[in-house]
Structure formats: C-alpha cells, structure tokens
Amino acid sequence: MPPKKNKKSGKNGYWEFVLDCRNKHPNKQNMHEVQEYAARKWASMSKEERRPYEERALLAREMYSPARYTTDGIDIEVVERKERDEARKKQEMKDDITRTLKAAYFATDLDEKIFLVIHINHLAYYPTEDKYFICEIAIAAVSLKNGVEDVFHRIVKPGKLPLGYYGGALTHSKETHQMLELVQDEPYENNTREVFNEMTSFLKLWRGKGSDSIVYADEKTHEMITKVIDNFCQEFNYPDEIKVYNFQYLFFALRNSVAARTVWPTETYSSTELEKDLYSYTPDISCEFHEMSDISVYCSKSIVTRYCYTLCDHCCTDLNIQLVAGFHVPKNSRIAVDSSRTNSKAPSVCSTDDYRQAARSRVGSFSSTYDENYPALGSSRSSASSVVSFSSMRTPRNVGQPTKAATRIEQSFKAMSVRDHRNLNFPPKGYEKQNEK
Ligand SMILES: [Zn+2]
C-alpha cells in the first residue's frame, strides 16, 4: 500500500516515485494508470530502493519549507545547526582534554606528559577551494618537567597564489609576518607535501602512546589551523587523525589541575595570561628569517615557544618544578628560587618519583652526559632552513633526588576536585579523605 499522503508538506518518497513513474511511463497522460502501477511497484520495493526517493523528498521539503533568515540572508536553521555542532565539538574537546590530564595524573606522569603546541602563519584564504595558503609552521613539544623539549619549524612555500589574492596577502603580510616575498618568488615552489611529511614524523615522535595526534592551537587561530591540517590530511591521504584542540582550555585545565592554592574560576584567566605575552621580546627563539627581520613577535616558532613559557611559568612552581632558563623560561631569565617550597637538600628538582624507579635509573645514566649549556632553541641550531631538531633535547635536566612533587600533585588534584568538580571530575576518594582529617 502506498503511504498516506503527508498533507503538511505534500512531499514524501512515494510522491517522488510517482512523479518519476509518470515521466518514464509510456502512457503519461493516464494518471490513474500511472498511480496504480506506482503503488504496486512501491509496495514491492526494499528500503534501499526507496531511499533515493525519500532523500529527494527530504531535500524538496527543506527547500520549500518556510525558512527564517538572518540579516545576511543565511537560513537561521543552518546557523543554529552549525552553532549546535560547534558547541558539541567544543564540549567533546574539553572532555577529552580533561580525560587526558586525568589519565596522566593516574599514571603519575603529568609532569612528563608532552603537549604539542602549534602555530601557523598564513598568506591568504582561498574560498573557492576552502583552503588557506600558509607560509610558516611551528610545533613545540613541551612538558612541565623539562619545559620546551623540541621545536619543529618550517617555512612553507605553498605554490603560486591564485589570481586576485596577492593584494590581500600583501596587506596581511605587511601587518604581520612579512613573509610574502620570501615564499612567493619564481618559480613558485610548493613544498607542502614535504613539510607535511616532516610534521607528521615529528608528531609521531612526540605523541606517545595512542594513534591520534593532538596539537593545541590558540583559539584565535584554531579554526584556520584546523582547516589547514584537515586539508593536508585529505590531500596527502594521511591515515591517522590529527586533532586540533584549544590551547587556552588546555592551559586553564592544566593550571587548575596543578594549582595548590588558587584555582582559576573561569577560562578567561588563561586567555588573559596569554594575551599579556610577557615573553614577546625574547631573543633567539624565532626563526632565522624573523630574527634577522627584527619582527620575531610574529614568528610561529617564537609564538609557540612563548606559549610554552607562559604555560610553564604558571604550572611548574605548584608542582615544585624548578624553572630552568632556556627551557621553561627564556635563556637569560633570572629565576627566583622559592626556598619555602624547595627541599634544601635537593633543590630545584622535580621527578615525580616513588612510582618510577625504572625511570630514575634511566635518568641516572643520562645525567653523566647532561650538558649544562645545551641550547634549547638557539637560532644557530635550528635555522629557518634546518627544519627539525627533534630528539636533540631529550636529555633530562631535572635530575636528582625525588622531592615531594607526587604528594603535591595529589593534593592539587584533591583541591581541584573539591573546588571545580565541573571541570575535572576526579574520583571522590581523595576528597573524602581530606574531609576526614
Ligand atoms: Zn619565523
């Protein structure tokens, strides 16, 4: 039997099928005959066979339904759906970051957990292909224990810009990174595949266990970077997923998970701290090109490094990790040692300890080769053309006797679970214990 006619919309899959039959039927004029044929045929059709008609009907209903529009002429329903999608994605991202921190906490290696911070400079957005033409990329690998462990940096030559996009790119370039002329010269080389391959090798090296890579991007560039990475993955058939998460949220959640005393009540605190950009004039952390052009503030390499410094600056002391100049903070920083929080017998040290006998013996073997003056990010080491320096900075620095860092982490998480259940929902065990006291 044909389905009942949907009076409200007037369009359903069956109706689309009848129209189709009429067009193909040898006796088009006889609508009665057509309908009879269609009804019989429809009844015998499988779900799969009916699907194209159902889909066509759905499309027709959407097209003819009275839609509301924004002042820009965009369907409100589309806008709302997009907003819902974005909100859902954002929540998923937050949950995932929280889970990651929690897992690291239970594995007692939160201080060694590597976070990958990314920044990309672009020339222009090309809407026809929904893609960005980019010119510079940098990813820093940072852990609270060792600070900036490594930085991947590459100047990207994206091929010739499409006609009509040079002017916009020139304006953007002049106001920011000034790289247009550098990457847009004859014969308009395209090294994106090469850069992508090197970047994924770097990610694989640092992502640890698990198959997905997560990179953290500033919320202002988050959308652009997500698009760039997604396009790359598609274009070069990359089999794994690279997730781009919000660095501000990571900073907020990580800071709150280690904060023993003051927890940030809202995410805006992390944004505000990053906006201060205290390390914006740090020498020797940008690429050769930007260092020479004296505009290092816009250099991707410098930006990711500064983000890492800010992160360390706010998260290390609560874990009793002594900041090391050139790794946690800029090279020539004067670091105050808080004696009240540091064990005088084993100062300036954090190794989260009692749990990791094995790790400690490994550390012991490294310590003999430890080089006090190991340059973390010196431009002499990683010039613009010299790509990657990965694994060069793996030598542990915070080597020595364990302190009470583990206890501190535990306390911080307990405090956190009391004060901010919503953000980091840790098991209530620690909380109960604390209450018993
Ligand atoms: Zn640069």
Q: Can you tell me about this structure?
A:
This protein is α/β, with parallel strands linked by helices. It is 45% helix and 10% strand. The protein has 2 domains: 13-64; 82-337 and 372-404, 2-Layer Sandwich (Nucleotidyltransferase, domain 5). The chain has helices spanning 13-24, 31-44, 47-64, 76-106, 166-175, 180-183, 192-206, 222-235, 247-258, 268-276, 288-293, 300-315, 357-367, 405-419, 429-436; strands at residues 115-126, 131-143, 147-155, 213-217, 242-246. Strands 3-2-1-4-5 form a 5-stranded mixed sheet, sandwiched between helices. Strand 2 (131-143) and strand 3 (147-155) form a beta hairpin. Residues 136, 286-287, 289-290, 299-301 line the site of zinc ion (ZN). Residues 136, 286-287, 289-290, 299-301 line the site of zinc ion. Its main location: cytoplasm. One of its GO terms (cellular component) is P granule. Keywords: Cytoplasm, Developmental protein, Differentiation, DNA-binding, Meiosis, Nucleus, RNA-mediated gene silencing.
Rg, alpha carbons: 28 Å
The counted number of beta strands is: 5
CATH architecture of the largest domain: 2-Layer Sandwich
Q: Could you tell me which ligands this complex binds, including any ions or cofactors?
A: zinc ion
Question: What is the share of helical residues?
Answer: 40-55%
Instruction: Give the termini separation.
Output: 73 Å
Uncertain spans, ≥5 residues at pLDDT below 50?
A: 5-9, 339-406, 412-437
CATH class placement of the largest domain: Alpha Beta
Approximate strand percentage: 5-15%
Count, helices: 15
Strands side by side in the biggest sheet: 3-2-1-4-5
What class, by secondary structure content? alpha/beta
Sheet with the most strands, sense and barrel status: 5 strands, mixed
